[in-house]
User: Fold this.
Amino acid sequence: MQLQQITTYPKKLLSCTAQDLHTIFPQPTLLHLSGKNPHPLFISVLLHGNETTGFLAVQRLLKKYTQQRLPRSISIFFGNTQAAEQGLRRLDTQADYNRIWPGTDNPMCAATIVAQEIVDIMRSKKVFASIDIHNNTGLNPHYACINKLDNRYLQLANLFARLTVYFIRPLGVQSAAFAELCPAVTLECGRPGHQHGTDHAFEYLNACLHLNELATYPVHPQDIDLFHTTAQVKITEGISFSFNDTHTDLLFNKDLERMNFTEITANTSLAIVNQDSIMPLRAIDELGKDVTDKFFTINNKQLKIKRKTMPSMLTLDERVIRQDCLCYLMERIKL
Assistant:
C-alpha cells in the first residue's frame, strides 16, 4: 500500500459509484486542488467502505466547482476503496482506516504509515480545518464529533448540527490526529443511501469553503446539545450474540437501536443472557479502564443498565458490532 497524491482528477470521478471508485483509485489517494485561499480544507471520505455519503457529497462539491475557482484550496482523502467495492466497513484482512492515525495503539503497518504521511503533508500545507464524513448503520440523528473542547472546534461542529459529541477514545481516529493541527470534526450523517444525508454533508462542505476563519467566541449554550463519551462497549471475546437466534450466549432486544440518543434509566434490559460464566459485555472508559461493573449487571438472566446513561451508535448489524463495538455511552456536558 502506498499513498497516491494527485492535483487533477479524471472526469469519471464525478459520475462513478463508490463501488467502482477502486478502478480509478486502487490505492489510498490524496487529491489537492488549489483555491483562492491557499490554506486547504481537508476532507476525508470512505475511511469505512460502506459509508458512502461523504463520497457522494464530495462528488457534488467537485461538480459545483468544475467551471469556477474554489474559494479555498481543498485536499480530499479517498480512503478504503477496496472495502467500498464490496460495500463493507473494512475487509477482514485490513486494519480499520479510522483507527490507524497518529495516536493509535494498533501496531505499525502500511496503513498507519500512510496515515502519518497524510498528517505530515497537511501540516506542511497549514491545513485550515479537517472534516471526516461518516455514516451509522443504526438509527441515529445527524451529529458532529470533536476531540478538543475548544471554541473553534465547537463552532465547526455547531455549523453542522446542534448535537455534538466530545470523545477521546477510541484511539487512532482521523479527527483526533488532525485536532493537533487544526479544528477538526467528524460528521455522522445517518445511514448511507439517504439523500438528506448527502445534501446535509454537501451544504456543510460548501459553507466551510467560504469561511475566512472560525470564530473563537463560545457557542451559546442554547444553540448546542453537547455530550461526552464516557465508555465504549464491546462484546466480550468468545461470546456469541444475536438479535434472533435464541441459542446464542446473548440475545439482544430487537429494538435496541431505538435507544440511540435517548436517556435510558437504571434497570433497563438490553438482552437475555443464556450463559452465566462471564459478563458478556465490556465497557472501557476514556482512560482505557474497565468500567463494566459501573454500567451493567445481570439479574434473572436479564442484562441490565445499572445507571442512567445515553447510548449512541447502537446497531443491528452483527458484523459491524464485531469489527467495531456495540455502542458508546454518553453523558451531557453543560458549557
Summary: The radius of gyration is 20 Å.
